[in-house]
């Protein structure tokens, strides 16, 4: 049993999650992959075709869309919110830039449960527009799902297409991602891994986005809403480990994945987290130029460009409840195991 497999089987035994799937590899593909556990605590065993709620791993995928649109001249990193969204003109967000939204330096607060008081898409989007800034733009990294919601709206306005269509065209189609979608259909929902027994909805959530603000938005947002499979995520990881192959020009990709906020309180690339010196979800052994993203449901995707290695971890750590922080240590240990996995072992079979 590989080190990642043993680690994740142990975490499942400690009830950190009911199921986990993983892939560690490089630009040629996976070096180690597998799955352990069940789709829910009472559900069927994972079989490798399982559909996972990516949560905030949606953010860098939306970021790839924005960078692809920038390559095409549809928008610029210095473009302002007001230039693309007329309803924002004259407000405190009019002069915020696409680059600030990507780097989480806009000053827009994050993790605000707007869904509690705004039960419709129109009212929630208006609440996002009116949300007061809590930092001067450009002075602080302040992780903001609301900023990514706005970024998704900008992408839609710039391209004249809905965000789900843009993800399908600019990310999924080039890489052959067949199951990476917003709003899974009935067939994919039947393969979905359970998330939370949601107090707000009064039921166990399966195959429907966990993030409540995304629910109100109709399941599609720049901040959350994507579902995917292990096979699709390792295809994305492989492309990232190959320098963005099939997605962006090399100079665009280098700009996106470089650290942009080292003069501030946290390391951020554009729509990606950087590896902070202490406490990084990437653990201790991924290199200093590593970038990636985590998702609240227990997902993550990290890449070490210097080692040419990616690591995908998919879990349902919010099942049946979001309480508990055990995933933090598991995630760090997983990345340490992924970083030290030998590259000379025969590759595992794909599902």
Automatic annotation (TrEMBL):
It comes from the Bacteria. Residues 7-325 form the Beta-lactamase-related domain. Keywords: Hydrolase. Transmembrane segments: none annotated. One of its GO terms (molecular function) is hydrolase activity. SUPFAM superfamilies: beta-lactamase/transpeptidase-like. The keyword Ribosomal protein does not apply. This is Beta-lactamase family protein. It comes from Streptomyces odorifer.
């Amino acid at each position: 049993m590989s080190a990642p497999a043993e680690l994740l089987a142990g975490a499942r035994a400690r009830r950190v999650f009911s199921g986990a799937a993983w892939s560690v590899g490089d630009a040629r593909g996976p070096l180690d992959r597998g799955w352990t556990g069940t789709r829910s605590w009472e559900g069927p065993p994972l079989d490798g075709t399982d559909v996972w709620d990516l949560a905030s791993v949606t953010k860098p995928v939306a970021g790839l869309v924005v960078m692809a649109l920038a390559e095409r001249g549809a928008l610029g990193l210095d473009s302002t919110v007001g230039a693309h969204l007329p309803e924002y003109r004259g407000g405190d967000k009019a002069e915020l830039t696409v680059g600030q939204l990507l780097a989480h330096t806009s000053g827009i607060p994050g993790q605000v449960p707007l869904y509690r008081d705004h039960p419709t898409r129109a009212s929630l989007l208006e609440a996002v527009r009116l949300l007061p800034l809590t930092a001067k733009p450009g002075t602080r990294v302040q992780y903001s799902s609301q900023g990514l919601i706005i970024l998704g709206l900008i992408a839609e306005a710039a391209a004249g297409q809905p965000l789900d269509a843009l993800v399908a065209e600019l990310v999924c189609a080039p890489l052959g991602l067949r199951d990476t979608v917003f709003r899974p259909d009935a067939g994919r929902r039947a393969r979905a891994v359970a998330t939370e027994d949601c107090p707000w909805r009064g039921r166990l959530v399966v195959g429907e986005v966990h993030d409540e603000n995304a629910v109100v938005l109709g399941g599609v947002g720049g901040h959350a809403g994507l579902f995917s499979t292990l096979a699709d995520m390792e295809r994305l990881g492989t492309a990232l480990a190959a320098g963005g192959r099939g997605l962006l020009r090399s100079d665009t990709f280098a700009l996106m994945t470089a650290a942009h906020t080292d003069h501030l309180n946290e390391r951020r690339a554009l729509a990606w987290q950087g590896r902070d010196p202490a406490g990084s979800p990437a653990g201790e052994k991924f290199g200093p130029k590593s970038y990636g993203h985590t998702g609240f449901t227990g997902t993550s995707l990290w890449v070490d460009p210097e080692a040419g290695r990616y690591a995908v971890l998919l879990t349902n750590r919010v099942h049946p409840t979001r309480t508990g922080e055990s995933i933090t240590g598991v995630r760090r240990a997983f990345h340490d195991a992924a970083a030290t996995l030998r590259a000379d072992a025969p590759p595992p079979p794909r599902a």
